[in-house]
Specification:
- The longest helix is centred in the middle third of the chain and has 29 residues.
- About 45% of the residues lie in helices and about 15% in strands.
- It is an alpha/beta fold.
- The chain is built from eight helices and seven strands.
- The protein has a single domain, classed as NAD(P)-binding Rossmann-like Domain (Rossmann fold).
- Helix 3 runs parallel beside helix 4 and helix 4 packs parallel to helix 5.
- Bound molecules: nicotinamide-adenine-dinucleotide.
- The site of nicotinamide-adenine-dinucleotide has 30 residues, from helix 1 and strand 2.
Amino acid sequence: MGLLDGKVALITGGARGMGEAHVRLFLEEGAQVVFGDVLDDEGKALAEATGALFVHQDVTGPEDWQRAVGTTVETYGKLDILVNNAGILKFRRIADMTLDEYSRVLDVNLKGTWLGVKSVIEPMKAAGRGSIVNISSVEGFIGAEGMSAYAASKFGVRGVTKAAARELARFKIRVNSVHPGAINTSMVMDPEIAAEVDGEAFLKSMVIKRFAKPVEVSNVVAFLASDRASYCTGSEFTVDGGMLTGAGY
Ligand SMILES: NC(=O)c1ccc[n+]([C@@H]2O[C@H](COP(=O)([O-])OP(=O)(O)OC[C@H]3O[C@@H](n4cnc5c(N)ncnc54)[C@H](O)[C@@H]3O)[C@@H](O)[C@H]2O)c1
């Protein structure tokens, strides 16, 4: 028996990286999976390889949300789970960052998450329950050089999560945030980060001294999405190999 048997899930930014790992694990655990992304070729290829359903979706657009949620409900009859995973990172110090660059990060990471929560309320109410998992970051707790926009967006995701948990508990909708640390995806291979960050010193500073595989985050996301997490809402779940322990969290 799978952890997510009988559930219908929508996962954003699912074409690669952690989103792809969530798609694959959710299918293994018995869910029907719809995933969105702006990367059409990667999305179609993953859909073909796995049997999940791909929809083109830019999380900053309300119409794209309507289409993604509509497709999910029309195809599978309901929507039980939303994973707000899509995100971007722009490494740039405040002095060098343009307002457009800053706004873009906030739009995708924070506005996209808020729109997601807003878009699934009615279908989850109709289903009689729901679970929303918002992907924040360790940058939702701490700031780092070059990360002002990213940290602002990920602190914001934590805030939206807590307010939504309070608003939606009456409809049996749980809302939690997941805070990955250093996960091995294209996001952390960014050449601008590689040029600025001392990789060896970073590894030495780690408690578990390695980057995580994406599925190590998916396991926590799947738990929160499932009925096993029935008393968890408004909470923060770090998957960071102990990174935040030194920061007092
Ligand atoms: N990799 C890490 O170490 C790390 C750490 C903490 C948090 N995160 C967060 O985890 C999530 C997944 O990141 P990842 O590491 O897999 O990176 P990734 O770049 O591999 O994946 C992000 C996905 O989001 C999609 N995306 C970007 N903009 C979009 C938009 N406007 N609409 C829809 N989809 C869009 C991308 O096309 C991509 O498929 C992100 O929210 C990221 O901020 C990553």
